Amino acid sequence: DKNSSSIMINPPNSANQLNNEECRQSEILIIDDDVELVAILKEALEKQSYYVSIALSAERGLKKFYGSKPDMILLDILLPDKSGIEVLSQIIGKAKKEYIPIIIISGEHSKEIQLHAYSLGVMDFVQKPVDLDLFLMLIKNRFELKREWQEAIIVDELTGAFNRKQFNQTMKQLVSDFKRTSRIFSLALIDLDHFKKVNDSYGHLVGDEVLQAFSHLVLNSIRVEDTFCRFGGEEFALFLPNTNAASALLVIERIQKDFSSLKFSARDEIFQVSFSSGITEVTEAAQESDKLIEEADQALYASKNAGRNQTTL
Ligand code: GH3
Ligand code: MG
Ligand code: MG
Ligand code: MG
């Protein structure tokens, strides 16, 4: 097969950056005044290493919902101060937007109440008394679905890098951290060199494999706190928190050396690919995302002009 290529490296395991996120204990907020049930649930859920937060009233539940950031909510309908339906209608918008599943657990389960809850967008209405085994399984499945959703939404399928949506999110977070705490970060923009030639010479599928090999190399070369994104096409971005431009340069140049020495083969030819990069560091003068991207882009452009396979600060 003339088109087949074999990449002459061991593609390392796709270091899924989501693992980073997953290591965080998932928080379940229980809003229920049934102290006995709450105690049983708390014990069972903690055994499965969830972090459980408890509110025995609607008021406290709402406070906790807006204050912490639970990953799932278990909501009772009959609460001492307010109906769970009211709580539901207050929080469902934000919960949907942030993919926080809400599971109703209720002693009151008339068809009318259930219809009301479902019509507000709830997926699960569990009737008391709760069967603990079934309930734990439901929670597990909802978390699994949530994980799959999140992955589909923020991870680029071809390369395993985060996508543009997550790029924007990370930028927003790092910029706001910087403004609050002066914690610095660097941004590197990366563009593969003469990539059109790879596609033209060896076909688009081989081009795809090069993109994958590049991403795997980067994902296995960076720290857990770094965020690697596909900016679009053959352009990528790497955020390096707590790293100044000079240190970021060392990281990128090491990856540059490793990548440009990889050997690819296709159509009975061996070929190599390189990339150019531009780095910028957040400063008082440059702390808006547009400005940072513009600076890194200009540095990248300088690397291209100076002959490619290099990095500019
Ligand atoms: P330069 O060194 O100046 O960056 O040259 P270049 O050829 O890399 O830049 P150009 O912008 O001309 O071409 C980028 C190419 O990347 C063209 C496009 O088809 C290819 N490309 C973008 N996304 C993908 C992809 O997902 N898969 C493959 N195989 N190719 C892609
Ligand atoms: Mg109750
Ligand atoms: Mg490009
Ligand atoms: Mg390019």
TrEMBL record:
Record's GO cellular component, any one?
Answer: plasma membrane
Question: Which GO biological-process labels does this protein carry?
Answer: cell adhesion involved in single-species biofilm formation; negative regulation of bacterial-type flagellum-dependent cell motility; phosphorelay signal transduction system
Q: Name one GO molecular function term.
A: diguanylate cyclase activity
UniProt name for this protein: Diguanylate cyclase
Where does the record place the modification 4-aspartylphosphate?
A: D76
Please report the stretch or stretches of sequence annotated as the Response regulatory domain.
Answer: 27-143
- The part of the entire sequence present here spans 87 to 399 of 543
Q: Which UniProt keywords apply?
A: Phosphoprotein
**Signal among the record's keywords?**
no
Q: Reply yes or no: does the keyword Phosphoprotein apply.
A: yes
GGDEF domain ranges (all copies): 183-313
